[in-house]
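Why do we bother with holo predictions? Because pocket geometry can differ from the apo form. Keep that in mind while you read this record for fe (ii) ion.
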Amino acid sequence: MRTAHRTTPPTVTGTGAAGTPHGHGTAPDEAGLRAHFEKVIADDRKIEPRDWMPDAYRRTLVRQIAQHAHSEIVGMQPEANWLTRAPSLARKTILLAKVQDEAGHGLYLYAAAETLGVHRADLLDALHEGRQRYLSFINYPTLTWADTGALAWLTDGAAIVNQVPLCRSSYGPYARAMVRVCKEESFHHRQGFDSLWALTHGTPAQRQMAQEAVDRWWYPALAMFGPPHHASVHSEQSMAWRIKRFTNDELRQRFVDICVPQAELLGLTPPDADLRWNDDRGHYDFTPPDFDELTRVIKGDGPCNRQRLAHRRRAHDEGAWVREAAAAHAAKHRTPHHGPHPAATTAPATADEATADEAAA
Ligand SMILES: [Fe+2]
Ligand SMILES: [Fe+2]
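The structure, written out:
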């Protein structure tokens, strides 16, 4: 583990638009730093990388942002499978753009994690060794072309519901990364809807292919919001720190409420006989996902876990020459004032922590 250590005590810098509560030249004690941190959170302002933060807050962010970053890059695989088999040049171009966007999301998020003092190489090691996880839906197969549409409409749609509140997350770099990610996820979601629209307005066989794909992806998408709130290990504290704003259950309900009218427009039926509008609640009632299955898939026993991870490791190994060339280029052009990587105080999350909360939010 390449974990560096701070050589100087962390300080309150006031970069979180919070100002410093301490006079110049005085080393603030931990109680003062903690009080300032709590006030920034309570005032709904942002914590920035150079601000003091409790170790547990830093660890939670590293776990969540790393899991999110891993999900973006491993999440390229199910659709990449269809790039060479897209039914038209336009569909191929759209899918290629989407898959490239996901790589970019990974880049923003690894960069955001590095502001917390961890190294991208260590996070990737943790992914490849199974110590950190990625979202469970990625471990399901895309059996037909319609799966690319259903996957994007449902899972990118679920990602938006999860991630829009993260644009207001208390950690500045994460919140800012989310703004751009959400704009691009919106395109992903719409192109998925558009792809399904084409199929549902096509031949009976195409319509059936779209319905079967929705049957496969409905529950993996619902499971993306993680376990119920009462069983979610990290939710309470993450909400207190305003890293996340809503419970897994609230977000799952919001997603169902948004999706059902869209499914009606498409002429597709979610695979849930108990799905119906509840006038009293003002929400749709629905059957929740199988959380035992979710746990099994998170722990590595889904239909494609082994394949996805093996492919990721292979891609990483085969890309070693690119990283070496980039490092050599950077070394050649490094100016003397460029120092080593910022020091860190915290190692990446453990496997146990990573498995506990499925939702990236
Ligand atoms: Fe993404
Ligand atoms: Fe996406």
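The longest strand covers residues 276-278.
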